[in-house]
Write a structure and sequence with these properties.
The protein has helices spanning 30-46, 72-87, 92-95; strands at residues 12-19, 50-57, 60-66, 100-109. The protein is an alpha+beta fold. The protein has one domain (12-109): Transposase IS200-like (Alpha-Beta Plaits). The radius of gyration is 14 Å and the shape is globular.
Length: 110
């Protein structure tokens, strides 16, 4: 049985992270970081999202996001994680069947 869906209402600020399995690298060369930034820009065009900050590490990344509407965070993250896996030629073993990620909601309304 799957886990219950997370509630991510719009108007709140969220810290989102995504990491690989077994500490395998997601970004292997400097061009991968630039490619991720292009994928991030495409994700914003496809699913508008306010990005307040981001940090890219070799085996994971962090985003601070501020969705304007309910459901926008889920739509954006779905598009971003699938786009990243497809376009960066990341081995399936780095993510397993699905990308692993966590969402930490802020305590304040933005």
């Amino acid at each position: 049985m799957g886990r219950a869906l997370r509630s991510a209402p719009g108007g709140f600020v969220y810290h989102v992270l995504n990491r690989s399995n077994g500490r395998l690298p997601i970004f292997k060369k400097s061009g991968d970081y630039e490619a991720f930034e292009h994928i991030l820009a495409e994700a914003i065009e496809h699913c508008p999202m306010r990005i307040l900050a981001y940090c890219l590490m070799p085996n994971h990344w962090h985003l601070v996001l501020w969705p304007a509407r309910d459901g926008a965070l889920s739509d954006f993250m779905h598009w971003l994680t699938l786009g990243t896996q497809k376009k960066l030629t990341i081995p399936t073993s780095a993510f397993g069947r699905r990308c692993r990620g966590t969402i930490f909601p802020s305590q304040r309304r933005a």
